[in-house]
Design brief:
Elements lengths: L8 E10 L5 E10 L8 H6 L8 E6 L20 E12 L8 H21 L2 H15 L9 H24 L3 H14 L4 H13 L3 H14 L4 H14 L6
Antiparallel strand pairs: 1-2, 1-4, 3-4
Helix pairs in contact: 2-3, 2-4, 3-4, 4-5, 5-6, 6-7, 7-8
């Protein structure tokens, strides 16, 4: 009984998931997520909003709606269909506007970033980007108490990771301007972050801003002198800027 979940509301469900042979691969007595945020497998994202509180449903999910073509090591084989038994325990308004302790912010941010990594590995870069942005939203939300020095450092590191991941997803989506903005945001937090420097240099080179790209890549090389990728990028710039033989 009760209304079905509305967009933006948070749900808590009890989940059991099994392979075709009956082997149990999912058991969560209280999984909490917001449908549409990409925090759960697609079978739950799509199925739970059709349920009412107290209802028990069974969802037979083909592999694109479970763990995709690669599966999930070590217990879900590639292209495995799954049978989910789902009990909808509770529906409530989403938690994001509410102040949370720094530790809860870190856990929520990490959960959403890991979900983004899952989408990225499957090649669903738009879904990955959505999860990374939601992770940043969680990390930047209001906190119930000021973070301590260690928590502040962890929040900073998680923000940089999420921004780098956003840049990677934007590059896959062929959105160079947005990818460059994500790199620059990461570098404002951590000016010597090697991954952000490398990607910024690559993006500047693609835009024909070779002098700027060379400066950024040389700084990246100072931080990681053994990087073959950075050496290759600089070599390409040198070849492009050098006049042809005999000119």
């Amino acid at each position: 009984g009760g209304p079905r979940p509305r967009p933006g509301q948070e749900v808590s469900v009890k989940v059991l998931g099994a392979l075709e042979d009956g082997e149990l691969v999912e058991r969560d007595p209280r999984l909490t997520f917001v449908p549409g945020y990409g925090d759960a497998v697609q079978a739950l994202e799509l199925g739970v909003p059709t349920m009412q509180p107290g209802e028990i449903s069974f969802f037979l999910a083909a592999f694109p709606y479970g763990y995709g073509r690669p599966g999930r090591e070590p217990d879900v084989p590639p292209e495995a269909p799954l049978l989910f038994e789902v009990s909808l325990l509770e529906v409530r308004d989403g938690p994001d506007p509410q102040p949370l302790p720094p530790g809860a912010r870190l856990r929520l941010g990490a959960q959403r970033r890991e979900r983004g990594n899952f989408h990225f590995a499957r090649g669903d870069f738009a879904a990955a980007l959505r999860s990374y942005r939601l992770a940043l939203r969680a990390l930047d939300g209001p906190v119930a108490a000021p973070p301590g020095p260690q928590e502040e450092e962890e929040l900073r590191e998680q923000r940089v990771k999420c921004l780098n991941n956003c840049a990677a997803a934007e590059m896959k989506l062929q959105r160079a301007g947005e990818a460059l903005a994500a790199c620059e945001a990461a570098l404002r937090i951590s000016p010597d972050n090697g991954r952000a420097l490398l990607r910024r240099g690559q993006l500047l080179a693609r835009q024909g801003r070779d002098a700027e790209a060379a400066l950024v890549l040389r700084r990246a090389l100072e931080l990681d002198p053994a990087s073959k990728v950075i050496h290759a990028e600089l070599s390409q710039l040198v070849k492009r800027r050098s006049p042809p033989a005999g000119a």
